[in-house]
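Quick question about two entries, pasted in order.
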Amino acid sequence: MMMERKIKRFTKWKFPIYLNRRQRALLSVFFAVCLLVAVGIGGTLLESRALSTSLTERNVPPSFEHPFGTDWLGRDMFARTISGLVLSIQVGLIGAASSVLIALSLGLAAATWGRTADRIISWLIDLFLSLPHLVTMILIAFVSGGGMKGVVLGVALTHWTSLARVIRAEVLQLKSAEFVQVSRRLGKSRWWVASRHIFPHLIPQLLVGLLLLFPHAILHEASITFLGLGLSPHQPAIGIILSESMRYLSTGMWWLTVLPGLALLTVVRAFDRIGDHLHLMLDPHRSQE
């Protein structure tokens, strides 16, 4: 009898490991943010080490002292990879933020400036969507002279289309809302209505759009740099690391390419998970899932 009571008490007790969907999303975002913060701090601490060479430690495989091994000049690949990730994050942040501003401006213009502006902007969105991102980015980077300026312009001018459509649809829906119609009847200007009623409702979409643009911006920056049209070869960018390491892959030095590539995919996946879960965390109707 005593044993049966203990078993019943044990089965009635609920373990705290059973989390709902919102709690799991919050935990996943927390770990992803911690990873990105660690990458940022590591890039600052290892900036000088990423450029230092040691000819006595060339082509060393991964070890405790050099987790990602060393390259043909004795440079520590772990330090170069972390510095390259920080540089990619900086480029992705500037490019994605610029793209969000373009999407916000054109989305608001298409929804508020009349049918003619809506048709022109919709045609422009369809035009950019019909062109491959990578090809357009290569052309923009080539015309602008390459470097960080070319990469940022390429990202900003090619990644705004989908978000602009979302903003346009959201603004059209908000324009027909009752509180917006009441403000217009009370004599409020379009700028007052847009700044007080429409823009606050667009902040979640803009934040989620910024985080979802980050992975594309980072991968496309690495792709352009890999092709030689992006950042300077003197900078420890991921695309430069992969481009230089490809010629040594056939010699058995797999760590020069595989480990930096996995690190890039990990950072991209971290941003992707933050963007996917952010909408769930901000949506009050799904808080109990």
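Here is the second entry:
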Amino acid sequence: MRKRNGTFKRWSKLLLRSKTGTVGLLIVLFIVFVAVFAPLLAPYNPNAINPSSLHVPPSWMEGGSTAHLLGTDNLGRDILSRIIYGSQVSLLVGIAAVLLSGIIGVSIGLISGFYGGFLDNILMRFVDSFLAIPTILFSLVFLAVFGPSIMTLIVVLGLTNWTSYARLVRGEVLSIKERDFVRAARSIGVKNNKIITRHLMPNVISTFIVISTLSVASTIILESSLSFLGLGIQPPTVSWGTVLSDGRDYLATSWWLATFPGIAITITVLGIIFLGDWLRDVLDPRTK
């Protein structure tokens, strides 16, 4: 218990010293809070159509209304409510896809780095082959074949990002497996699966945390891009990408339709990147 308290205090001090880390954490906590309590925070149903309030500008503009702080879209739907609800899907897809990528990549990296030899060559050539496939092209083909849905999007995004985990974890394992505590475990007859789970995995978990934090940001952007193209989240489900897609035809007349969800994506991604950079400085011994 004392060790955990000491670690928490050390991390708190390091976080307060890092302005970008503090800002990143506050942004991430705020976005998570908005996503969790979206039904309570959103002033309207995100899909509620109001024909009498089409293309209402933001409240501070001429013709705006305090009833719709960020304005409405071409169907009279409240933009603020759609952004609030959209955070749920965007975060869900981003986090779930990264977890799937991590499970696949870390498992392959651990096995490849630990056993080496022929198995290592086969697995790494498979990784290299997968890296040669354009990410956006693979995503488009996969979604076209299996159909766009939240689950399909999570799977396709998870399958496009696992290679970075595999390569980095393999490099870590190649170094760690030559250390004395691993050799000692082998000398007393500890089974390979226990060495991997008890000795190697805890030592690569910091690398996984750093990569996954930064990967969430890129995954949110990719999800928004696919939804913007009409191949990601489908109506009536709301995500930041679908809100952007709805506003692309009205940029000249109703700029707020695409601007505000774009700002939400930008702020969220910056917050995650700031937090990820701080975690890298704290957890990666090579940066100390």
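Reply: The chain has a mean pLDDT of 84. The chain has eleven helices and no strands. Hope that helps.
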